[in-house]
Amino acid sequence: MKITIPPLPSSSRTNDEGHLEVAGCDVVALASEFGTPLIIYDEEQIREHCRTYLQSFRARTDDFEIAYASKAFTCLAMCQLLAEEDMSLDVASGGELYTALKAWFPPEKIYMHGNANNTEELARGIRSEVGHIVADSMDEILALNRIAVKNSRRQPVMIRVTPGVEAHTHDFIKTGKQDSKFGIGIADDRAFSAVALAMEQENLELVGLHMHIGSQIFDLEPYSQALAVMADFMARCQQELGFDCRVLDAGGGLGASYLSGDQPAGIDSFAEVVVGGTRREMERVGLPVPHIVVEPGRSIVANAGLTVYTVETVKEIPGIRTYVAVSGGMSDNMRPMLYGARYEALLANRATEQDAGTYTIAGKHCESGDILVKEAQLPEPQPGDLLVTPATGAYGYSMSSNYNGQPRPAVLFVKKGAARVIIRRESYEDLVHLHERLE
Ligand SMILES: Cc1ncc(COP(=O)(O)O)c(C=O)c1O
Q: Does 320 lie in the same domain as 208?
């Protein structure tokens, strides 16, 4: 039977045993083979999201790139998949760059970001000949030029600016406001000075501008507003500095569906707002339409992924609540603690049973705040049940930690009834392999 919980991958169904199945794989069998916590990605769903992005943009322009935001989830297999799908890549650190290059991802299709990359990270980007480095500060512009001179390379760069437009999302993940650690403000002229500074640098080729107005955005109107601000800024830079902005990166942020009721705008509407909006604004200010780049993360991987936990204990506090404690928690999904992010849950081994009540899903960590789902509707859970949280494909594994000595989970790609380990589960030995003994 097809399962209709929207946050699950579209290949999800229940089989004759009443188990959850994803891409033809029985989740109960996967948990028994690979252990829990276990992160499972429907590989075809990721590919489908990439293709929908490419098709939606291609239907409107032939001068664009979709640069997947590595920070949402990255590993060698993911970078290989993205290269196969003809995607570009956004990396935000030396480590994400290293992972991409290790997977032979084409450097010319990499956009390198970061608000505090050190000299070594920037040098790695320049020496690897990444397509674009997106400078986030005056200091970084100067550092990039010094490193480019040393390496005898003329590096294409962009500048991340803050258009001062607020996206409708959770406070802690708004990044396009004036008061932000990211980017350089347009409103107070610092962005204008940054453009002038970058243009003066002998070994930098300033080719474009970047913005990222927030994350988990459902209402696309802020993109239109931000594009209008960008267009005015581009026109001013053109007139007063002679800067031709050939690349415009509108960032990521399109919402994913974490809960059954969530209805994000969708990739095609996003493409329309970004491409249509850029065209309209360029016409208004009399500039040519630039090469358009977007950097989606969660809208590609969030709903393709799910996490499976074992229920370890069930503790009823009479008249208050019932805690269901599972085999993972904040070490594999920080988002509920960091942003108050909400998830749903189901039991993979009893996926066809009726819900019996409301339960609080607690992690196994030594923090009272380690709560994965505050109010989950479930059949009465028992120790040994397999609890699934859908839509954990973005910013779960990539923010994971070893808190309380918890080894990071295994990660699988599932496709057509077969599972492949793309990241092995950490062992206890892995936990101490960097440690040195006192002697
Ligand atoms: C610069 C930049 N680009 C892209 C993204 C991806 O955002 P999302 O995963 O919401 O699409 C982020 C997320 O924080 C970001 O900071």
A: no
